[in-house]
Amino acid sequence: MKKQAILGLFSYVDDCVTAIEELKKAGCKEIEVHSPVPSHDIEHVLKEEKKLTFNVKEIIRKVFIDRDFQVARFTAVGALFGIILALVLAGGTAVLWPIHTGGMPIVSLPPIGLVAYELMSLGAALATVFGFFFLAKLVRMNLGVYNHEVSNDKFSIIVHESDDKVIAEAKNILKKCGCEKIEADVGN
Amino acid sequence: MSSQDEENHTEDYDKEFEGVEYSKVTKDVVRSLTQTSWKYYLALGITFLFLLAGAGVYYYQTRWGLGVWGTNEPIYWGLDIPNFIFWIGLSHSGTLLSAILLLTRSNWRKPIYRSAEAMTFFALVTAQVVILTHLARPWRAFYAMPYPNIRTLWTNLRSALSWDIVAISTYMTLSFLFLYVGTIPDFAAARDHTTGWRKKFYTVLSLGWKGSDREWRHLHRAYILLAAFVVPLAASVHSVVGWDWAVTINPGMHSTIFAPYFVAGAIFSGIAGVVIIMILVRKFLRFQEYIKISHIERLAKMLLVLSLAWSFINIFEIVIPWLKEANFELMTVASKWRGSYAPLYWTMLTVNGVFPLAMFSKRIRTSLPAMFFIAAGVELGMYLERVLIIIPGQNIGHLPATWSSYIPSWVELALTAWTFSVFTFLFLIFVKLVPALSIYEVKELLRVPRRSKMVLAANPVSSSQGGSALDQRSDSKTHGSGGDPELATEGKDKAKSSREEEE
To answer: Do residues B119 and B271 touch, judged by C-beta distance below 8 A?
Structure first.
């Protein structure tokens, strides 16, 4: 059975939140919400309880498919990489081409520390941005089911489902919750 | 969600923006991109002419070498290094101010930060242009980059100039990333509300942004992390620039106070730059409804504090050599007080230390012409400060026989003007291609659209009688207000009048 998607457009955030709650109760699992501004209400209602798991397959799915982890991990790795690069660059190159200056050490800590600090920031920032793109699944060519009024003043809920009955029920819920417009996309 | 939570969220908006709706913000910002007045084209045309003329002067300098400058022994740097410090200094505050205010959750940053961040980035680009003009043989700029050449001769990273390259390149990259990441949702808004080449342009820049919960969540975290790195980095960059001179033994330069002095001076000139940019953007892009007088007043308070800090450091710069009886340093001071540099020195003190005191008055802080005048004065003063650090610092050395005088040549003055035209040109292009006001962050300051609030205002009795949210929705649909824009507007009007009554 082909997966279908329906999009419901709302003017009010509380309507949108109620609709999400009702859709979740009705068994809709794949719900996507688009909003013009970040909303705590929407984040709160979409939040799922996390269970600790040590299943390798589950962890791989979480990291590479769901991409469900914090961007700060990228930052930490990037910062570490920057520090190592600085140590190699500032310390290593001083050893490769030693310049003897009045009894001062060839590998001197203050310049290494300074370069390490700068490159740590650079590595961390680049990794943070890369992590943000990766986790937010950005750099996509096709927007999929999307209504451009979302970037103006509307809130939209997209339900992805393959069961016709659930889709019909989802439409009813959206209408009942104050949805202004429903768009359907079959074969998504 | 509890009703108390709901109420808290409902009231979480800035009362200065009462009555402004989400759609108006989008409309106004997109209008600033797509509608262009003749004044803009005139400004762009004049700037472009200056840009071309400057490029011609730069060609002349490259063709004939640095002999066309007014420099002589022992003054080798001329105006280029003061220009460089000036532009690096101006680059502070934009991104730094934005990052600090973001980390401290100061909402007043939201309408002003985009242009301020752009100012940072373009000031850094202009500083790079100054480096190229200073090199004279710009095709050899790559010598400064750390790469393994055929003699395995690496860049000496123990040199303060190498630190400069690392620090400024890092700061420029971070400033760009901070600016770009924060603009992605606005590029998406511009993509959705423009047509033609602009739509294609914003489609590429928005990277497929849709405004999903996942995107907002990760954007917020990434943005906070970037801000956390930007703040100390900005301080480190100007400290490193200060150390370029502090690590020398020249009188007037060899001072441990240089790093904080440079950082304070940079933020001082940076905030003055933000004030100027804000006043111009507010007027010419017609953002009076978003960039309020109160924003300028807050910046004025910061400018006043920094003016006092700057004056304090300047007093110390004189007191320390006086206490330790450092004769050559005192001679540098004397040359500024009553020597050939006196006119520049006293102008600097007046515009940086005296005029800003007027900002103790609220009337001055809330007057745009007065603030523009004070901020422009601070920029002039900070430029003179850099000249007064570099030129007498090179001139008044330990050997009085080498002391000389210096008058910049027309080439140096023309290239100084050129840097201003580079900055202005880049900024003018920016305001027509990138939303100069953050659409989504300004929307965050507005009242979140909630039906519960509308129903409560339109029908307080039935709402207070209870019933589920779905029931309320059904009621409002039955009465025709749900989904009916006219009635919804009527509801909003009633809500507004109800709020006014409450107030």
So the answer is: no
Q: Which residues in chain B touch residue A11, judged by CB atoms under 8 angstroms apart?
A: 449, 451, 483, 488
The answer, yes or no, to whether residue B355 has pLDDT greater than 60, is yes
* Complex confidence, ipTM: 0.90
Residue A38 backbone dihedrals phi, psi, to 5 degrees = -65, 135
Q: What is the 3-state secondary structure (H, E, C) of B181-200?
A: HHHHHHHHHHHHCCCHHHHH
Whether A77 and A126 map to the same domain: the answer is yes
- The residues, any chain, with a CB within 8 Å of residue B471's CB and separated by 6 or more, are none
**B170–A150 CB contact, under 8 Å:** no
Total Cβ atoms within 10 A of residue A146: 22
Distance CA B38, CA B347 (A): 36
Identity of the amino acid at B280: L
pLDDT at A1 over 70: no
- Please check whether residues A77 and A131 belong to one and the same domain: yes
Beta carbons within 8 Å of B191's beta carbon, 6+ residues apart: A151, B199, B202, B203, B205, B206
Model's pTM, two decimal places?
0.85
What angle do helix axes B293-323 and B258-284 make, rounded to 10 degrees? 160
State the Cα–Cα distance between residues B164 and B162, nearest whole angstrom.
5
Q: Please list every residue in chain A whose beta carbon sits closer than 8 Å to the beta carbon of residue B172.
A: none
Average pLDDT, chain B: 84
Position B345 scores a pLDDT of: 93
Q: State chain A's mean pLDDT as an integer.
A: 86
Partner residue facing A136 (CB), from B192, B219, B483: B219
> How far, in Å, CA of B167 to CA of B161, rounded?
10
Q: If DSSP codes are grouped into helix, strand and coil, which group holds residue A159?
A: strand
Domain that holds residue A11: 4-67+143-185
d(C-alpha B81, C-alpha B331), whole Å: 22
pLDDT for the residue B376: 96
Q: Which residues of B touch A160 (CB under 8 A)?
A: none
Tell me, yes or no, whether A80 and A98 share the same domain: yes
How many domains, in total, are found in chain A? 2
B263, B381, B384, B370: which is closest to B313 by C-alpha?
Answer: B263
Q: Within the 56-75 window of chain A, which residues sit less than 8 Å (CB to CB) from chain B?
A: 70-72, 75
Distance CA B412, CA B68 (A): 8
- What dotted CATH number matches B3-149+156-444? 1.20.1630.10
Domain limits, chain B: 3-149+156-444, 460-502
Nearest Cα to Cα of residue B216 among A135, A15, A142: A135
Helix (H) or strand (E) holding B358: none
Distance CA B406, CA B81 (A): 14
